[in-house]
TrEMBL record:
Keyword terms: Membrane, Transmembrane, Transmembrane helix
Transmembrane helix among keywords: yes
Name by which UniProt lists this protein: CWH43-like N-terminal domain-containing protein
InterPro entries in the cross-refs: CWH43_N (IPR019402), DRAM/TMEM150_Autophagy_Mod (IPR050911)
Domain CWH43-like N-terminal: 7-216
Top-level taxon: Eukaryota
Membrane topology: Multi-pass membrane protein
Coiled coil: none
GO cellular component terms, A-Z: endomembrane system; plasma membrane
Organism, as annotated: Pygocentrus nattereri (Red-bellied piranha)
Length: 248
């Protein structure tokens, strides 16, 4: 039986701890009576707001946790995107698709930092909304491109095993995003907030599926002095199994 690479746990831990952090923000905001609970009916009032993720993390102490969660998620999400790019680079016939996917996720992660660091009520909402649009829009594009490449590349003959769930999750992310904006336009804030939470959870679940392919791979960075031939970063990432591994 083959051993799983330790990198298997990176996507899983990323999804779990990011989701847990966002729910901590939500419960802090509910406890402080800043937002209406998701299970309740929203009634316009001065003291409570609809339970959008950004509103939940808009005021201290929840805002402190929210900023930290978003910044860490953006950083680790970018690392996942780079690792996925290097994993697929030797096997894709259309490199622009792989590069475009990495660019999309990188910009989505940058949008996450805007959402986390520029809260709605403390700065101009335009900057916050730009970050939200980047995160949701480019994140959804990343999901569809990765789903397509999963089937096309078919790593370890697991293309269908990983690709079908990813297509389903991509459809769920897209449906929730369209529903979110449609309900927002109709000012149905309670339902829109629920769609937003579902969208984020589906997106995190999608990124967690990278554990399927990561369990076969070992990633390492090799550093050499000026006397040695230059070694590119992509050349230092190698595939390993139970019986074969690269060591420094």
């Amino acid at each position: 039986m083959r051993k799983c690479s330790p990198w298997t746990f990176l996507p899983i831990m990323f999804s779990f701890f990011t989701a847990a952090g966002l729910w901590v923000v939500y419960f802090i905001a509910v406890e402080d009576d800043k937002i209406t609970p998701l299970s309740s009916e929203y009634k316009r009032s001065v003291s409570k707001s609809p339970p959008y993720i950004s509103i939940a993390g808009d005021a201290p102490p929840a805002s402190c946790v929210f900023s930290q969660v978003m910044n860490m998620a953006a950083f680790v999400g970018f690392i996942l995107g780079v690792l996925r790019y290097l994993q697929l680079k030797p096997r894709v016939h259309k490199p622009w698709l792989n590069i475009g996917s990495l660019v999309a996720l990188s910009l989505a992660c940058f949008g996450m930092t805007l959402v986390g660091n520029f809260q709605q009520c403390r700065v101009k909402m335009e900057l916050h909304n730009i970050g939200t649009s980047m995160t949701f829009g480019l994140g959804t594009l990343f999901c569809w491109v990765q789903s397509f490449m999963t089937l096309k590349v078919n790593l370890r003959n697991e293309g269908r095993r990983a690709g079908i769930p990813r297509f389903l999750l991509s459809g769920a992310v897209t449906s929730c995003m369209l529903l979110y904006f449609a309900l927002m336009a109709q000012r149905l804030h309670m339902h829109a907030a629920r769609a937003q939470w579902a969208l984020v959870m589906f997106f995190l679940a999608f990124l967690g599926t990278f554990a399927i392919e990561f369990r076969h791979y070992h990633f390492e960075i090799v550093c050499s002095d000026d006397q040695d031939p230059p070694l590119s970063l992509s050349e230092s990432f190698s595939e390993v199994s139970e019986y074969q591994s690269d060591q420094l």
